[in-house]
Amino acid sequence: MALEAATADPDCDGAAAPQKPRRADEPAPRILPIVNKRGLHARASARFVETVENFDAEVTISRDGMSVGGLSIMGLLMLAASQGTSIEVSASGPDSVAVLDALERLVANRFGEDG
């Protein structure tokens, strides 16, 4: 699996998840509040990626001007999304609505972790 880099600088030569204009047939991005105590840490990021892998969709996660691909655990960690912050999740592809629904449930359920 290729590592997708995260960047807040569009001129960075890393493999950033580009911000593409949303097509009319794509669902609106979802704003997901991070509610678990540890935030989007390694285990939670792994569960996020595992969820994305189950769908035929391209997922992008953004926070504070930084965007990463939904298949990059390291990228998700770089977002530093702690408890009380929010992430914006967008998706395109045949399963875009289904993956957004699944990710919304995952995050709301604290990644299956603490109370």
From TrEMBL:
Q: Where is the HPr domain?
A: 27-114
Keyword ATP-binding, does the record have it? no
Localisation: Cytoplasm
Q: Which keywords, in A-to-Z order, does the entry hold? A: Cytoplasm, Phosphotransferase system
Tagged with keyword Zinc-finger = no
| Pfam family of the protein (one) | PTS-HPr
One GO BP annotation is: phosphoenolpyruvate-dependent sugar phosphotransferase system
Using the UniProt annotation, give all residue ranges assigned to the region (Disordered): 1-28
GO terms under cellular component? cytoplasm
Q: Name the family the entry cites.
A: Belongs to the HPr family.
Protein's name in the database: HPr family phosphocarrier protein
Organism, as annotated: Jiella endophytica
